[in-house]
Specification:
With 340 residues, this protein is of the alpha/beta class. It folds into two domains: 172 residues, Rossmann fold, CATH 3.40.50; 154 residues, 3-Layer(aba) Sandwich (Rossmann fold). The chain is 46% helix and 15% strand. The chain has eleven helices and eight strands. The strands form two sheets. Strands 2-1-3-4 form a four-stranded parallel beta sheet, sandwiched between helices. Strands 6-5-7-8 form a four-stranded parallel beta sheet, sandwiched between helices. Helix 10 links the parallel strand 7 and strand 8. The longest helix is centred in the N-terminal third of the chain and has 27 residues. The two termini are 15 Å apart. The model has no long low-confidence stretch (mean pLDDT 97).
Length: 340
Amino acid sequence: MSKKGVLLVNLGSPDSPTKKDVKKYLGEFLMDERVIDIPYLSRLLLVKGIILNTRPKKSAAAYQKVWWDEGSPLIVLSNRLKDKIVPKTDIPVALAMRYGNPSIHFGLSELVKQGVTEVLILPLYPQFAMATTETILVKAEEIRKKHFPQVKIEDIPAFYNKPEYIKVLGDSLIEGLNGFEYDHLIFSYHGVPERHIMKSDITKSHCKIDGQCCKNQSAAHQFCYRHQCYETTRLTAEYLQLKEGTFTTTFQSRLGKDPWIQPYTDETIDNYAKKGIKKLAIITPAFVSDCLETIEEIGMEAKESFIEHGGESFHRIDCLNDNDAWANVIVGWINHWKIS
């Protein structure tokens, strides 16, 4: 008789904020062909010949700004979330990271040790993207075939539009804004290169990134990161009855010179400050756990730039993290799968 178990998977983090560990982590992350999707030799030259000789020192300094006594915020918060889920379900639950530790191999082995033969992979990303959900599922299947061929793997699709997710996101936004009167609200999602959107288009014709394709119904939306981000914003705004014109969707963290999906978060924030927006609130719904990109890039760098360009108050809203309601939503998904 089969036994079920769940593997929660998040992005990952260096083992420490030292240059050595950050370099190791960035090497694994950036050499992933679904993150930097160029031919292997070109990627090798770019990553190991250029990026890893220049970026680790700067990134280590950034990680040092956000590092907690318990470790990386993303790892600590992911573990706290798992610890809230475990007592609420009677099947094994493990945690893994796509890059760094604990690895997906380690997570699967922990479940197998408990007799698990059916694993539900839950990528902790609301929206589907090549560089997040897809790379997790591909890596998990690769490890399964090589090390755990007796194990069956299933996954939970992107949950960007699930009513229970939208409710918990919207409620967290209300809580996060408590006491802060904003002039404008930004929904900032992690950016991806435009070519990733095109590559994920299963119709091979729908995605044009022209301002309309994301609004027109299509099978392509099942794997369209851009569409899913805009839908998360739209549904959350609808749930909270936000007035049109009081909120904006933007994309952060671009890398290199190729075109990435727009509008860019940093440019938008600076432009709003220049135009007279004094009080800005920002939420980052591509992440469920606070990390370098939310705490340092948004909470520190973007805030500093907003103030420098004329803004007065900047408020970053926490991710869902180990929010009790969020943990309960995941438990609901797990229990539904358990009896299916």
